[in-house]
Amino acid sequence: MNEQKIIKPRKLSGFMELQPKDQLVFDNMLDQIKSVYLKHNFLPLDTPVLELSEILLAKSGGEIDKEVYRFTKGDTDICMRYDLTVPLARFVAMHNETLHYPFKRFQIGKVYRGERAQKGRFREFVQCDADIIGNGELSLVADGECLKMVDEVFEKLGLDIVNQVSNRNILFGYIEGLGYQKELKQILTILDKINKIGKENAKQELEKLNIKTQDIAKLIEIIEKRGNFDEILPKIENLSTNQTFLKGVSELKEVYSYAKNMGINQNKILLDLSIIRGQDYYTGTVFEAIIPSHKEFGTVCGGGRYDNLASYFSEKNFPGVGLSIGFTRLFDLLMANNMLKANPSTNIDLQIIPLGNTLSECLQLQQYFSQQLQCEVAYENRSFKAKMKDANKQNIPYILIVGEDEIKNQIYALKNMANSTQQNLSKEDCLALLLKNTSKN
Amino acid sequence: MNEQKIIKPRKLSGFMELQPKDQLVFDNMLDQIKSVYLKHNFLPLDTPVLELSEILLAKSGGEIDKEVYRFTKGDTDICMRYDLTVPLARFVAMHNETLHYPFKRFQIGKVYRGERAQKGRFREFVQCDADIIGNGELSLVADGECLKMVDEVFEKLGLDIVNQVSNRNILFGYIEGLGYQKELKQILTILDKINKIGKENAKQELEKLNIKTQDIAKLIEIIEKRGNFDEILPKIENLSTNQTFLKGVSELKEVYSYAKNMGINQNKILLDLSIIRGQDYYTGTVFEAIIPSHKEFGTVCGGGRYDNLASYFSEKNFPGVGLSIGFTRLFDLLMANNMLKANPSTNIDLQIIPLGNTLSECLQLQQYFSQQLQCEVAYENRSFKAKMKDANKQNIPYILIVGEDEIKNQIYALKNMANSTQQNLSKEDCLALLLKNTSKN
Fold it and tell me: What is the reported pTM?
């Protein structure tokens, strides 16, 4: 063993790896998200990280996406999942006969995208998805439920968000109504990036598509519609007579009314017609949540309605609506901005320090206290002084000093580390005092 | 979309994918394991699933193991982790200056082994590991703590286990004492598989190594030592005067005394000198837990002490002791043998069924009940009869029928699905009744 070569330990770049105390906070936040999903009667799904490339790349016709981790094992062409939606589609298509509809599943799991490493981008990240899938049809109440869950999740996490909501049919129909059906996709692409490129550049790009000047003005005007639903809805509903447009307005109204009935926080939801969310996939309701005090974080949760989840895997029709939180990126931003809830430096209530030959008795005492508290024994072979110093550094609130005399008398020295006072107590009195003074109880 | 080719949905073979109701049980059991690890002051670690091949294959000198998923992305030679121990070693070597020792970490995560698919073997499986790492040295109390955790984890899971414990130095020293230092590894390999190949075949194989007949008898005799610690320890301690042997006996005694002081269940721990656990890695305490009523399950949890965790990544010495549960395999066995705790077919306490134009009010009622119960609204566009039938199939305990008259009078029809009785109640009375009758409260 001694002569072996030492390999410099390092991890792959672009992969988050937290220190255990931060991981504890990370995991607790995931538990909170999970608790909201479970409260809304979503059930967990855990699909494999690996899928057949044929399945995962069905959408792209099997074309290699540079971001996807793809390899062969034996004769099998395999990909690591890059989202949780394609696996859900595959699952629903495989098991559609036995599922209960609306099928409400959540999945909290890692996905993989081998994109160029850069700050804030991760090649492995946890997504927290929740989707409601219908069999043939799905009520718009489901869209309301997703908005309500976004509200509850971020309230639980203690983060002030605003969820910006639209319905894609509104813009689709409006553009169609102006007579630009042929240029629809190109126009949407330009409007979708208007915040990035600026209004003037967007206008120029629209001009290149031969959009009339007055129509460009109308397009810019409509995507600037943003505000409370009750205020904005009346202002937009007469902007076009196009059927798709009217359908979008009507759906959005209905979804909003459900959200309102569900008691969604009115300050946390805005109608915003600039919400487009890419080009494909979504077909109705779309939403993106931001943290207004930190707009630079961008979208912290997004989602929407899609007509057909599993069109690549089934001839049946499974409309759905869902939300997704890119949790690793969000956590990274919160950590970098000191926005994580205060993380106690220890969760240990009591540390027992043996003095002399009392280890056995200390372990027995530990069992006694552990029934109601977090208790540990400082069993390592170090000096009493070193152990006290270490307990101090760890912010352990109470120390029980157990020497041979203490064992004989069954009275122990309990030291309050915050104020350095010490009391001599029976174990029962120690426990009573600790239970009284420990924040957990 | 309509003309696109349908790809038959399928998953990779050898990968577990549970139905959501079973996944709920799976997740709940993981939460229970996690709660025991946290109670013992272990902190979570979550290393990436992908590692540099140089790191992950350090032990094998970079040699390809057929089981490992290995591929290149750009110029990077990457592996999927096949256990959680090498990543832990890498982490400790990287961060050893800032860790607090003994460093107690748990990791519950998926690992990957592309072995030949067969019943009960999975290519992706969840491992639940907990390890205690020392800086230079580590007290044998840590070994006792691992035994105690095995005890607690399986008690929490409601599974009756026996943890079979040995110390590898006992056999090492005994064989050395008989004069077979050169044949040590080969002898251990044969003894390790004696239960598989049978005593007679083992004897023949030992004969081929030119082991003397009386020594073969001694070897067979010593590995048959099995029973309560208090009974077996006195019977073995004089079997050899070899120093390694005596060290092993003394360590085992010490670990047992700690385990006893920790209040470990005496029926659930056995001294068993046949426990060898492969050839490398472990250097002291070794243990394997089985379920006596289902010996055919094999080892459901194993672990032990190792001298040096990170010898490939650091010149420093990090002794450790840990336990590992191959959870996916265990869950699969429990499910196949109907040994999972009764899984309620629903966790919904109340379903609200709208009759007529009452959806908005139903959603408001849902918010009221959801503060204390699991409540859902049957909002899909289906007949009342179909909804009732479905609620019955789902074993939903209570239904609230909300028609337009009910809204007007603020009195609702609450139906107990178990006995088909119906009461007309205010929402407050409904809630009170449900809280009284719902098992959760």
Answer: 0.95
